[in-house]
Amino acid sequence: MAGLPFDEAEYRGRQARFLEQIPADGLVLIPTNPSSMRSNDVTHPYRASSYMLYLCGWRHPESVLMAKHREDGWFVSLFVQPRDTDAEIWEGRRIGVEGAVNGWPIDEALSLDDLDSMIAEALKDCKSVHLIQKLNPQIDRLVNSALTTKSRARNVHGRGPVSISDPASILDEMRICKSESEIEMMQSAANIAADAHIAAMRVTYSGIGEWQIQAAVEGHFMASKSRWSYPSIVGGGDNATVLHYDSNDCEITDGDLVLVDAGCEVNGYASDITRTWPVNGRFSEAQKEIYELVLRAELAGIEAAVVGAPWKASHKATMEVISQGLIDLAILDCSLKEAMGEDLDGKTRQFFMHGTSHSLGLDVHDVGVTLPDGEESGRELEAGMVLTIEPGLYFGSWRSDIKIPERYAGIGIRIEDDILITDDGPVVLTAGCPKAVVEIESLVGSGV
Ligand SMILES: [Mn+2]
């Protein structure tokens, strides 16, 4: 069984920074994700909760991290599946209580067999519970009962918890800025995804099936000991104008573009890349006009992603370039102000209907509040944040609600890179993935 991706000191540092924000009479309970059934007795591939991965790197199901303050400081326990030969014969080897206590960044490993009694006991001595709810019904039940039971101990001696809160927001705030070793992992995920897109461009030809491009991308993920971080989107022609298209089951006609939005995970850390290319290896004039506009917008968005800039600065930059471009191409017949809108919600939104950025990390749409209520432009960018820049333009020929210009009907283009914010300016983690027209034209089909 593979070991931990980070050294013990990094996990211990995260735990300490988290727990110093919890009152000493609080009890912390962090359950991992439940496993989920696909059909009959087949489960979906298991993915641990990002909070569990972040705090102690434990990837196995059913575990619960518990932290309690003792006289000499916080004490971190991890409930794990006990060794069980019968279960292990079917489901795979378990690290077990004995294995978990050696080499994992925890103070004590406990068996899940003792979960009920140990947690019930711990609840008696705490005043507040800090629990991520709705992951483990057994724990929700125990905590709920401790909070609502009217016992003599509670009434007369005031024992037991009186409040419950969600510790996720504290962890989210910590997760939004990445450490150096997290950035290394994100760089590996970015490199694998960049190479996967290149591999897919090389095998593309007119008439190829979307699923075949998906196979090239995901085959590269798997060959690199990685897996997708979200279901790959491979949309040819009009399918590229459906933002979350993922059936990937159509053949792509000569003359059409294909939009590929696919990223992978390394030790849970995600990459997220979108590229769009012509299946026959040559952009038409109309396609090139839109492609170069989206690319100019993307570069402007990246340039705006600097320390101290508000979160929305990149979106404003991409909206501005795209709005002016749509006016120049006579797709919009209005002023730049009308195209942009009061709150970046003007006429341009007919063709560019999503945001420009999301945070990226252990989750592909990573945690952390980026646009707090009342702060229109969002939080300021800090060194260590990783976010995507991904403007797009979509002219679905199927749209009957708006006027789609004939020349551009059936074109959907998005270009997306992963950007690390640093004091020396934005670093494009996905720079290994080509996006200039000439580079793409020379790659597409070169491996057929
Ligand atoms: Mn994205």
Give your account of this protein's structure:
The structure is a single chain. By secondary structure, this protein is α+β, with helices and mostly antiparallel strands. It has two domains: 8-174, Creatinase/prolidase N-terminal domain (Creatine Amidinohydrolase, Chain A, domain 1); 176-443, Creatine Amidinohydrolase, CATH 3.90.230.10. The protein is 34% helix and 17% strand. It has 14 helices and 19 strands. The strands form six sheets. A six-stranded mixed sheet has the order 6-5-4-1-7-8. It has a three-stranded antiparallel sheet with strand order 9-12-13. Strands 10-11-14 form a three-stranded antiparallel sheet, with helices on one face. Strand 2 (37-39) and strand 3 form a beta hairpin. Helix 9 packs across helix 10 (210-223) and helix 11 (285-303) runs antiparallel to helix 12. It is elongated and about 80 Å long. The protein binds manganese (II) ion (MN).
